[in-house]
Every structure is written in structure tokens, then in C-alpha cells.
Design goal:
single chain, 242 residues, mainly alpha, Four Helix Bundle (Hemerythrin (Met), subunit A), 13 helices
Length: 242
Amino acid sequence: MKASALEFRLRYLIHIVIYCLGFATPWNYWLHLDTVRTWQWLAAWLSRTKWLSFSAATISVLVAGIALALLAALLRTWAAAYLGSGVVKDSSMHGDLVVAAGPYRYLRNPLYLGTFIHTLALSLLMLPSGAIFSIVMIALVQWRLIGGEEAFLSAKLGDAYNAYREKVPRILPALHARVAASAVAPRWGAAVLGELYMWGVVISFAALGWRYNSLLIIQGVVISLGLSLVARAFIPSPQAEA
């Protein structure tokens, strides 16, 4: 099951559409499935099970959201620093060489894993049915993108990539590096700029979450997305990064 070249080219738009549907939950107007957001639902569930008081449970879920958003931003920035933000944002697949540096020594698809973890953070701000929809759909899209990209790299790089693929896990990171580090210098400045949206979401959770207002955090997410679209104009092209 692999994505087409068109799906890869439109991958960011596809993700945005899924997230928008997850937040809007248009089906909820007809089915009346949800009344509270996943954050409050989880806090209430933890309180009902007597594990924590409602106040402590609310704080715990917020801390989990901050941790997930931070982990996603760190992982994607680490990966983009070695792969190149220009390559990450480009609409075409690239396969000039096997990048076995940074997180790519532990797993083959750190960017996709980072996006999935980010989805778990965002899902806390959605209604439960929207959260389930987003998690399932993003997982499906990610799996198709991975299949398409790995098929492309295998055809383009041949034995070099196939040998790398046999040693390094696809999505769940190994505890120890599986391959020797390739000579790739990280570009941290461009990586942070390229992942500005991810860091904006971290800041939104960490700075606004203590108001216990999901809508306020969602506004921060939207602003982060807008700033990241502006920042894309300053990301070096893949040719400039080479």
C-alpha cells in the first residue's frame, strides 16, 4: 500500500484537511456523539477511575500534551537538520544518497513518526470522535507515504538503500544505532525554521495550556501554521542545501 506521486505532492494539504475535519467534526452536528473535548474527557475518565482528582487529571493531560508536542518537534527538527529542510518541504521525492545520520541511524522514517506523535497532541484539543478520526486517517496517510517513498528510494538507490532498510527499523526506533554515521553535517538553523509550526504548537500548549482553554491553544496552533507558511519562503531549496 503506497502513495502515488500526486499524494506525495499534496501531502501537506491532505494533512491540513484531515486536521480541519478533526477539529470541525461536521458529523457531530447530526450524530451528537460528543459534548466535551478529548482533554476534558480523559481528565474526567481519570477522575472517575479514582486514579487522580479531576484537577490533577486535567493538569496531567496537559503535561502529556506538552510532552507529545515537544517530542514531535524535537524528532522532526533532528531529522530535518540531517535530511535538509528543503528536501523535507519539497513536493518531489529525493533519492540522491542514503542518509544514515542523526535519527536515521535508529529508524528510517523519523519525520513521519514525529508527525504522528504531533497528531496525538493535537487530538487532545479535538472532540473524541474528531480525535479518533484524525489519528486513524493520519496513520493511514503516513503509512501510504512511507510505502511510496521507500519504493522510490529502493528503485533509485538499489542495493545501498536495501541494505540500509534491512538494518534500520521502519517506524519504531531501535535503542542503539544500527548503522555507522554517514558524513552529513546538520543544518540546525534551517531545520528550526522549517519546523516552526511544530515549535509554535509546543509554545501554544506550554504557554496557553495553563488557562485550561482548548480554544485558546487552537488559536495558537492556527497562528503557528500561518507563521510557518511565511517561513517556508526562507527555507533553502534542495539544490542550495546540497
